[in-house]
Write a structure and sequence with these properties.
alpha+beta, five-stranded mixed β-sheet, 3 helices
Length: 154
């Protein structure tokens, strides 16, 4: 059985050292029973958003897809902080994604595939999850995407 650490190395993926600092009065992740629930994570890279604005207007669906991927990796960083190892994750249970959308944009599921596909690549069958992809008017810092995870662990 391949470890998550080995799979990450094979994929050339680095989980951020620390999840981005909360933008309010909350923590990046909490443990409840056998689950870790993350706060919504923005696609911050080195403390900055790579793009801002609405998907379908200032941000292309392809850019937003990449933002969803980055947001999922930031959420995994929060999971790592509370579990100590991603090898403890036994299942990605649910992904909830928010897409700041131009009113005419209806491709939210395709944007959130950026998160779902990277989780599947990292965790294999254990990365298959339920998901919600929601279009919203605006997100914090004018981010195009926000992702939260619920994972099961042993």
């Amino acid at each position: 059985m391949t470890t998550v650490s080995a799979r990450l190395a094979d994929l050339g993926i680095t989980i951020p050292h620390r999840s981005p600092a909360p933008a309010g009065v909350y923590v990046p992740a909490v443990v409840s029973g056998g689950l870790v629930l993350t706060a919504g994570q923005l696609p911050l890279v080195d403390g900055r958003l790579p793009v801002t604005g609405k998907v379908g207007a200032e941000v292309t669906p392809e850019e937003a897809y990449g933002c969803a991927r980055t947001s999922a990796l930031n959420a995994l960083s929060a999971v790592l902080e509370v579990l100590g190892s991603l090898d403890r994750v036994t299942r990605v249970v649910k992904v909830v994604g928010f897409v700041a959308s131009d009113p005419a944009f209806t491709g939210q599921p395709g944007v959130l595939d950026g998160a779902s596909e990277v989780l599947g690549a990292i965790f294999g069958d254990a990365g298959v999850h339920a998901r919600s992809a929601v279009g919203v008017a605006v997100l914090p810092l004018d981010a195009p995407v926000e992702v939260e995870l619920t994972v099961e662990f042993a």
